[in-house]
Amino acid sequence: MGNMIKNICLGSCPNCSKGKVFEDKGGFFKLKLPKMYKNCTICSYKFEKEPGYFYGAMYVSYMLTVGEAVGLYMLLAYVFQFENNFQIFLMIAATMIGLSVFNMRISRIIWMHLFKT
Ligand SMILES: [Zn+2]
Q1: Contact between residue 40 and residue 16 where contact means Cβ atoms under 8 Å apart
Q2: 115 C-alpha to center of ligand 1: Å?
Q3: Which residue has the higher pLDDT, 41 or 77?
Q4: Contacts of 21 (CB under 8 A, 6+ apart)
Q5: pLDDT at 35 exceeding the cut of 90
Q6: CA distances from 18 to 12, 74, 108 (A)
């Protein structure tokens, strides 16, 4: 379990833990989507098992986004003590857009590690 978390954070192959999953990490501010390798560069493990394999990663991404938004709301509400929630909403929306590429990348890695066959 600890190893799995470490591999997810490092973006390592779910099979051999050595190869990298993403060729290019992409980034919202670079206006680039992350680019995945088709197979692991070390063990040739196929990352996308079948077409649509990563649709399920959207649920992981949703879970991450909700968690981040709730955490951020509590932090902002505590630190800034805004009078209305609209300012907080705008800050959360901006942060979520900025984190979208990161969430996409990490959710695919989590998905692969959860359903490794
Ligand atoms: Zn591998």
Answers
A1: yes
A2: 15
A3: 41
A4: 11, 12, 13, 36, 37, 40, 47, 108, 109, 112
A5: yes
A6: 6, 37, 17
Confidence check: pLDDT of 79 > 80:
yes
Task: Pull the structure tokens for residue 43.
Answer: 């063990």
pLDDT band, residue 86 (cuts 50/70/90): confident
Number of domains the chain is built from = 1
The rounded Å distance from CA 6 to ligand 1 centre is: 15
State the distance from the centre of ligand 1 to the C-alpha of 12, rounded, in angstroms.
8
Residue 18: which domain range? 2-114
pLDDT, mean of residues 110-115: 93
To which residue do tokens 């949703």 refer? Answer: 62
CA of 20 to the centre of ligand 1 (A): 7
What is the DSSP code string of 61-79?
Answer: HHHHHHHHHHHHHHHHHHH
Ligand 1 center from residue 28 Cα (angstroms): 27
Task: Please list, in sequence order, all residues whose beta carbon lies within 8 angstroms of the beta carbon of residue 94, skipping any fewer than 6 positions away.
Answer: none
